[in-house]
Write a structure and sequence with these properties.
The protein is mainly α. It is about 70% helix and about 0% strand. The termini are far apart.
């Protein structure tokens, strides 16, 4: 009988993370969340809503990096320790992480342009690019050349409208062919 209990304890010790993980990360938070819903205290509501937000982020992280995480033998234990820190009200880990990391990102979102294309140095940099281009053209070629350019653009625009009027109908939002 002693060897059976010893082998049982070995199995429990080896699989402690598998057994304790769902209890710590799901069962207790579920119970505490239901209790928080039934109370009028706003602090416990915030604690458990915050926990579920962080739990969701951890789960998304695990799903995204599953192939990398399977190479980390300590991941399940590190997750269990982190989850205990988030769950146990004495530590208020969920509130700490939310206040110091999640909330600043949510309240003050920083936009990052991943499609950054630097402008040329001689490119148009003013807000009113069309006027800047017209002024530069007049300086380089003179007002007569600009007037000729505008006349030619008017003629081409009139020509295009006369040709397209027989083939298309325009309203404010759409063109129909």
């Amino acid at each position: 009988m002693g060897s059976g209990a010893g082998s049982f304890l070995k199995v429990v010790a080896k699989n402690f993370d598998v057994l304790a993980g769902p209890l710590v990360s799901l069962v207790y938070p579920l119970y505490a969340s239901i209790r928080a819903i039934e109370t009028k205290d706003r602090v416990d509501d915030q604690q458990w809503l915050t926990y579920w937000v962080l739990y969701s982020l951890i789960t998304l992280f695990e799903l995204t990096f599953a192939k990398l995480i399977e190479w980390l033998p300590f991941w399940s234990y590190a997750k269990l320790i982190a989850t205990c820190w988030l769950v146990i009200p004495y530590f208020s880990g969920a509130a700490y992480v939310y206040q110091h990391y999640v909330r600043p990102i949510y309240v003050n979102p920083q936009t990052v342009n991943i499609w950054y294309i630097p402008r040329k140095k001689d490119g148009l940099s003013k807000k009113d690019d069309i006027l800047t281009a017209a002024e530069r053209y007049i300086e380089e070629h003179g007002p007569e050349a600009f007037q000729n350019l505008m006349s030619r653009a008017d003629r081409e625009s009139t020509y295009r409208r006369s040709r397209s009027s027989s083939y298309s109908y325009y309203d404010e939002d759409h063109s129909y062919y």
